[in-house]
Amino acid sequence: MSALPDSAREVIESEALANLVTLNPDGSPQLSCVWVGLDGDEIVCAHLPRNRKVQNIERDPRVALSIEAEGMSHGALKHYLVVYGSARITEGGAADLLQHLAHTYLGPDALFPGIPDPPPGYITRIAVDRVGGVGPWAQ
After folding, report:
1. Which of the listed residues 11, 41, 60, 94 has the most CB atoms within 10 Å of its CB?
2. Interstrand relation of 37-39 and 42-47 (parallel, antiparallel or unpaired)
3. Are 133 and 79 in contact (CB under 8 A)?
């Protein structure tokens, strides 16, 4: 696992949506837009159903994540962070994590998922192998 630079941590903890890429059984990419946060050095996101991205990670832990960021490179290309890593799925706690992330993405008074007695769901935990993209983290 690689340490995240502070500049990359700021992007992950911002309100910018992340694009998570997992691998389908046939090797093709599967892309999902997700809310993300940090738990120590791991990137976390939550899912209430056991959907395709959860199933893909259970079968193959290789993932990539991209997040658009503030700033421009040479005045022509918007900054973006790319994280490559290995993911694992843990059961339970998804509703609590989603509620925590809702404060970042929807505002301090947000209630999410907004359903009584939500299912336990799944949390994806991504151990960072390397970072890239365009921005101070890629220097």
Report:
1. 11
2. antiparallel
3. yes
Q: Which pLDDT value is given to residue 3?
A: 81
Q: How far apart are CA 36 and CA 66, in angstroms?
A: 11
Residue of 86, 23, 85 lying closest to 52 (CA atoms) = 23
How many Cα neighbours within 13 Å face the side chain of 104?
19
Over residues 56-69, mean pLDDT: 98
Q: Compute the distance between CA of residue 103 and CA of residue 34 in angstroms, rounded to an integer.
A: 14
DSSP letters spanning 9-57? HHHHTSS--EEEEEE-TTS-EEEEEE--EEETTEEEEEESS--HHHHHH
Closest by CA position to 65, among listed 46, 48, 44, 91: 44
- pTM of full prediction above 0.85: yes
